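name: query_chain
kind: protein
chains: 1
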Amino acid sequence: QFRLVESGGGLVQPGGSLRLSCAAAGFDLENYAIGWFRQAPGKAREGVACISSNSATTYEDSVKGRFIISRDNSKNTVYLQTNSLRPRGKAVYYCATKWRVCTFYGTGRYAEMDYWGDGARVTVSS
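structure:
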């Protein structure tokens, strides 16, 4: 049974950082891609960052140079280091997985993912 659990969310001031974790259970993450997505209230969910099974990474333009996605297969976990967070208010960050590769099309659009976590809430506010 595929299960993804996000953690590390919380309240952070603009310009601050958070490290989000996505722990996989019930399957071996090694052959799977993991993507991070976010959704603000009233808005569509958008792709943020993706790491394929070969560790190739893709980022949405607005987070390039500020966010870093990484994976530790020995811990069956993928991380999203978020830096220089902008005052976007509240958003839920989700991780999701699919076999080998995840694909972003730009402007937050992405190819369908197979399994999703329940999300971690992030609030960027002073």
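note: Residues 48 and 122 are 14 Å apart (CA to CA).
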